[in-house]
Structure formats: C-alpha cells, structure tokens
Amino acid sequence: MAGLPYIVGNWKMNGTRAMLNEVRAIDRAAGRFPRVQVAIAPPATLIYRTRDAAEIIGVGGQDCHVQESGAFTGDISAPMLKDAGADFTIVGHSERRTLHGESDGDVQAKADAAIAAGLGVILCVGESEAQRDAGEAESVVAAQVAASCPQGEQAPEKFSVAYEPIWAIGTGRVPSVEDVAAMHSAIRAKLVELYGDSGTGVRILYGGSVKAENAAELLSVPEVGGALVGGASLSAESFLSIVGAAA
Ligand code: PEP
User: Could you say which of 3, 46, 103, 200 is the most buried, measured as most Cβ atoms within 10 Å of its Cβ?
Assistant: First the structure.
C-alpha cells in the first residue's frame, strides 16, 4: 500500500473562527502519531487561518474552479487555494456531483487544474444505493475513476482516490468489510489499467460514516490507505480517535 495512512477531515460548510481551537488541538496531538498523515479541509474562509494555526497537519480546500482566474462569481481557483495555504483540495465529492451537477469531465478538469497549481488532490467516487442494489456498484465506480482521474504521467504521485458510497455519507451506515475490500481492489485494478505500475502507488481512502467505533476495522481492510471523515472530524476528540485507530 502507498505511503502512511492518510486521515482527512472534510468539514464541509461547517466552521467559523471558534473552530480553530479544534484545529490547534488536532495539530498538537498529531505530533504523537508520526506514522499517520493527518489533514483537515475546512471551509475556504478558514483555510488561511487554519494554515496559520497548524504546524503539522495538512490543510486543504473542498473544491476548486478549473480556470485560474476570471469572471466566475463565488468560485475559487486552485492557485488561490494554494496562495491561501492549502496543500491539496478535494474534488468530485458526491455533494458537488449531486447538488452542483458536476460530471466526471468537470471533476477531471478540476483535478488537472489543482495539480497544475501544485496542489495534491483527493478525488471522490462512489455509487448510490440504487446502483448498489442493482449490482452496478463496481462498474459505476470504475467508470467514475476512468473518467474523472487526473491526466498526465506525473498525476499518480499527486492524488488519492476516496471511495465514498453515497448512501453511507452522514447516515451511520457502512458497507461490509468484504464490500469495501472488493471495491478498493476494483479501484486499484482500474488505476493500474490507467497508469500502469504508477497506479499501484495511489492511495485509496474509504469515506462514509467513519467513526471511532468502526475506524480500526475499516482501516484494516486491504487497500484501504486512510479515511475521509465528515461529521466525526468536527470535534478534535472524535477525529483524534480515528487518527489513533490508524496509528
Ligand atoms: C464525507 O462527506 O466526505 C463523509 C465521509 O461524511 P461522513 O463521515 O459524515 O459520512
């Protein structure tokens, strides 16, 4: 498996300056887990302050525009994220795909723009409940990987895939370890098909209702190289229990 376990908190549209106390607590404690790579993706309004408040952990955006600048009211470009102190950005989260109508092509263009700006990328894929019930989960996710992963020879070193079944996000439901293992192995096969040997080095994270209670089991599944954590990343205490489970 590629690199250290990577535990990333996605704060979504949560957090004002008061949350910087959680950042400081996470950052202080992260020093006790040198074998785990820890990062937070706060809302864009907090990226600069989060970078300032943290010495050890990575800081990321949650999305980026494909253009570097221009007449795109409300959007934020990858070079702007970088300038604000981000190390990486999430792209293709299911909330962006569903609520903002982002296609695989849009997600791929965003991933390419982020890498061109010097950011790492966490690229999210995942099936709906109806697709899983129809037995289409692996083919749907493999198609998303094929059509939304970044392009170029250097790309595999710059990004991770996050497998996030849509029906597991924020619901308290998680797939069986067998289903997680099967999906991560299917994603790995697709990455190798796309990138050759370099595809073996791409980390594949699991996301969807990861909590202190299930983290150790999920992280022990073959090919699970870390976790993308939503709700449980909003308090330092619960997030650090997940970091501890990865150590
Ligand atoms: C997410 O939205 O990326 C996520 C994994 O959320 P949660 O952990 O709350 O299910």
Answer: 46
